[in-house]
């Protein structure tokens, strides 16, 4: 089977790393995977193609915006693939009913906006896949985790770069600030004298997007650069997907946060898996039931909610203990989330 992914070409965000793993693993089973489009200079290791007729299946991968081809190309694509050979991945919950959490994060501004997404999705395919652990809310929705775990990508002390940070957060400031401001920063302030270098790597931690309102709701990019300076937190720009794991490995601890809407929907993201490839101690801002469902019982030892300062200090004082915990989670992920299984599920989702 030859599968063509239609998706936005992003190197420092989104799901590119996962698709790269599909490209790597699929040939083992006689399949091939490519992204639709011309080769991209910022994504040199990936396979691209505009030869629609060289493929027999198409997977549309949508994040927080409708990514559409030019009308003529879209018409050719739709005429080339029957509906049963088209698959939609809804990564950011855009096919869900309108959700607004505590007047803060939301998947749609209005019901009319949501209707536009539903109309487009329903025109493309018979059903929609979601990387979620939650039960489907529609007969047209099926859970498909999409992301996998490959122990060959793990870094260990002998292969990891030198440590530059005690604590690191790798990810963009996109609906993250409320949790950072309410729980993470007060914990830093409480035990700052016991912590070394702290870093936040990603977009918009020290200033909002240059595009202004066109980039998205202002609340999504809230930050306080002066408070970061007072706590002595370093910020740096986003890194390419090929550098994420090594960048995380430059810290003894990495803090994992998730956008509230996606956490509410129990949507998994690529970061759930990338952070355990790194040579680091992942500490998780997740609810216990979700963390255990993904990572197994060992994950309880890595949870941060309600005890951030305590866990940061303890992890720095007892790194060997936490490394044993992380090794247990890695074994669980390798057993239950292999990319071999993901490829098998992808192929089965688009039968003849």
Layout: helices, strands, pairs:
Elements (H helix, E strand, L loop, with lengths): L1 E5 L9 H10 L6 E5 L11 E2 L7 E6 L8 H10 L5 E5 L9 E2 L3 E2 L4 H14 L3 E3 L10 E3 L21 E6 L6 H14 L7 E4 L23 H7 L1 E4 L7 H5 L2 E6 L3 H5 L6 H7 L3 E4 L3 H8 L12 H10 L1 H18 L2 H10 L4
Parallel strand pairs: 1-2, 1-4, 2-3, 4-5, 5-8, 8-9, 10-11, 10-13, 11-12, 13-14
Antiparallel strand pairs: 6-7
Total helical elements: 12
What is the global morphology?
A: globular
Strand order of the largest sheet: 3-2-1-4-5-8-9
Flag low-confidence runs.
none
Q: Determine the mean pLDDT.
A: 96
State the major sheet: 7 strands, parallel
How many DSSP E strands? 14
Q: Write the element-wise H/E pattern from the N-terminal end onward.
A: EHEEEHEEEHEEEHEHEHEHHEHHHH
Terminal CA distance = 10 Å
Helix/strand-derived category reads alpha/beta
The rounded Rg comes to 20 Å
Fraction of residues in β-strands: 15-25%
* Percentage of residues in helical conformation: 25-40%
Oligomer: single chain
